[in-house]
Backbone:
């Protein structure tokens, strides 16, 4: 498998197609110069009302030009790998487009993944520059070994003892147009690290063509028009808005804690700004939907909600849909850092057709592949597949590994050839990405997600898949969520269901709940051999979306619990908790 180059290729522009998303911003600045591009909740007045600052498309284009001149003068040029650690703000937008204009490679790591894992990612990126808030530079001075290649430092905010430049220093005034770099379609544009929710976090290499393809496909799939206003609660997706011509309203929230969002602030932004589109994780939708239901809230401006990051349950979709007008719809998307978006479909079809099947254990339907993206289901394997063969294909209706091909598929990971071998399959000039997810296709060519490949349980009686099995127990009114894990030797694991109770049921009699869960298990072919349950106070979940369950951690916890206090229960034995 070919190793990804560590520096951006400098192929002469006449030998490959020139692609750079920053040109889309310039187009929008010409077409709609005085329309707001970014709206930021700057503060609150003495009456508690939000006061907003903003940049128009013309201002954003010019501001990013000023930063581009300054970056180049500071030594951040085409191909320079640059860590970008800036909070959602007007400056984040301007800096990102400045880096695209220069042709620099921005490195983004989610700080919410924890300091230790974040530092490992930053060390692996071998970045030559760092643009970040003061806290990032404090970390750089304390952990120099993780930033040993950084030669250029720019502080966004107050600079203290660490030296280097400030954002004010690189804001070259007066404004002069900056010529957008003639980057090739296969030239590296960014390194975006995965959350590492099922293993080590890895840097997915994004080319300029991939960013451009994402903008095109998102616009076509959802029918987005330039007169729309977006509330992107995941910062990375907000960067697409300016290229799409949408106004981006930066939400007043901690983007690393969507499950802990203040729902009043999200509702406030939607109503104040007339938000028509919102991107949100299922955890945020559940939080805002629950509050909205309890308080009779309606959100008439919202016409479209796009949910991604983890499967959204039909219950969460129905609860949030009740806040919307009849012509509005919630779209659930499917994808990964290495390939997004892959598929999508709307809440009307979900609630009318697929939701009942999800509750019966068919998996979570994530819709049909979007335009120009192809999905194939192949045999489950934990080993590398060097070249494509039609013998790999599974028939419709059979569970296998989901593979994806299209313009949105990343070419590989940054300097991780072993991971490239395990995740990519070559078919001539075509590249397939193995999603690491399991699922199947129905006769309507819809994809049904059945869980992560690494989370399947290989029991003595056959293979169990997480999402279908958990759906059986999630129907219980006392269950907030459940998680299937395997305990014991890999070839003959004991299937264990971990249960997180809903807030209103945590004081209920667990013996009664347990007996009811046992009855549910016995009544379904998928779960009839599961008779081990553990109650957990609160599942560990991913930082980025607060929705993906860390089943590896639960498996360790379950093994420890069963080692000193077994609750392996025959179907008619009294519960021992």
Residues:
């Amino acid at each position: 498998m070919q190793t990804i180059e560590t520096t951006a290729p400098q192929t002469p522009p006449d030998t490959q197609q020139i692609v750079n998303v920053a040109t889309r911003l310039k187009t929008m600045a010409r077409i709609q110069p005085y329309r707001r591009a970014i709206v930021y909740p700057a503060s609150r007045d003495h009456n508690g009302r939000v006061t907003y600052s903003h940049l128009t498309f013309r201002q954003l284009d010019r501001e990013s030009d000023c930063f581009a001149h300054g970056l180049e003068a500071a030594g951040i040029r085409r191909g320079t790998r640059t860590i970008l650690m800036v909070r959602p703000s007007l400056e984040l937008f301007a800096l990102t487009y400045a880096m695209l204009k220069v042709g620099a490679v921005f490195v983004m790591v989610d700080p919410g993944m924890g300091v230790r894992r974040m530092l490992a990612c930053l060390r692996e990126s071998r970045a030559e520059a760092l643009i970040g808030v003061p806290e990032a530079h404090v970390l750089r001075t304390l952990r120099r070994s993780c930033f040993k290649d950084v030669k250029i430092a720019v502080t966004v905010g107050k600079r203290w003892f660490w030296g280097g430049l400030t954002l004010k220093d690189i804001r070259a005034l007066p404004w002069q147009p900056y010529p957008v770099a003639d980057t090739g379609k296969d030239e590296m544009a960014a390194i975006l690290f995965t959350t590492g929710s099922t293993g080590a976090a890895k840097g997915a290499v994004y080319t300029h063509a991939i960013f451009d393809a994402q903008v095109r496909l998102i616009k076509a799939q959802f029918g987005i028009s330039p007169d729309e206003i977006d509330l992107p609660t995941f910062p990375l997706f907000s960067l697409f808005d300016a290229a799409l011509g949408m106004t981006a309203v930066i939400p007043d929230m901690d983007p690393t804690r969507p499950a802990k969002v203040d729902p009043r602030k999200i509702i406030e932004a939607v109503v104040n700004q007339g938000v028509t589109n919102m991107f949100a994780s299922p955890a945020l939708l559940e939080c805002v939907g629950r509050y909205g239901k309890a308080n009779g809230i309606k959100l008439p401006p919202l016409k479209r909600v796009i949910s991604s990051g983890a499967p959204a349950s039909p219950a969460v979709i129905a609860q949030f849909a009740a806040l919307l007008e009849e012509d509005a719809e919630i779209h659930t998307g499917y994808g990964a850092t290495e390939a997004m978006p892959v598929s999508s479909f709307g809440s009307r079809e979900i609630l009318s057709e697929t939701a009942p099947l999800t509750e019966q254990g068919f998996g979570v339907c994530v819709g049909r592949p979007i335009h120009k993206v192809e999905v194939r289901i192949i045999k489950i394997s934990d080993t590398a597949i060097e070249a494509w063969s039609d013998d790999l294909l599974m028939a419709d209706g059979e569970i296998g590994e989901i593979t994806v091909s299209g313009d949105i598929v990343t070419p590989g990971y940054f300097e991780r050839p072993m991971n490239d071998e395990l995740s990519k399959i070559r078919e001539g000039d075509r590249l397939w990405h193995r999603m690491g997810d399991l699922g199947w296709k129905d006769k309507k060519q819809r994809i049904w997600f059945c869980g992560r490949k690494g989370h399947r349980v290989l029991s003595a009686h056959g293979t169990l898949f997480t999402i279908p099995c958990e759906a059986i127990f999630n129907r219980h009114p006392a269950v907030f969520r459940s998680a299937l894990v395997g305990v014991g030797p890999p070839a003959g694991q004991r299937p264990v269901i971990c249960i997180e109770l809903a807030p209103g049921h945590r004081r209920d009699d667990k013996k009664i709940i347990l007996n009811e869960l046992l009855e549910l298990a016995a009544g379904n072919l998928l779960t009839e051999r599961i008779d081990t349950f553990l109650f957990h106070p609160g599942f560990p979940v991913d930082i980025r979306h607060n929705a993906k369950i860390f089943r590896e951690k639960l498996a360790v916890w379950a093994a420890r619990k069963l080692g000193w206090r077994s609750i392996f229960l025959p179907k008619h034995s009294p519960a021992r908790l």
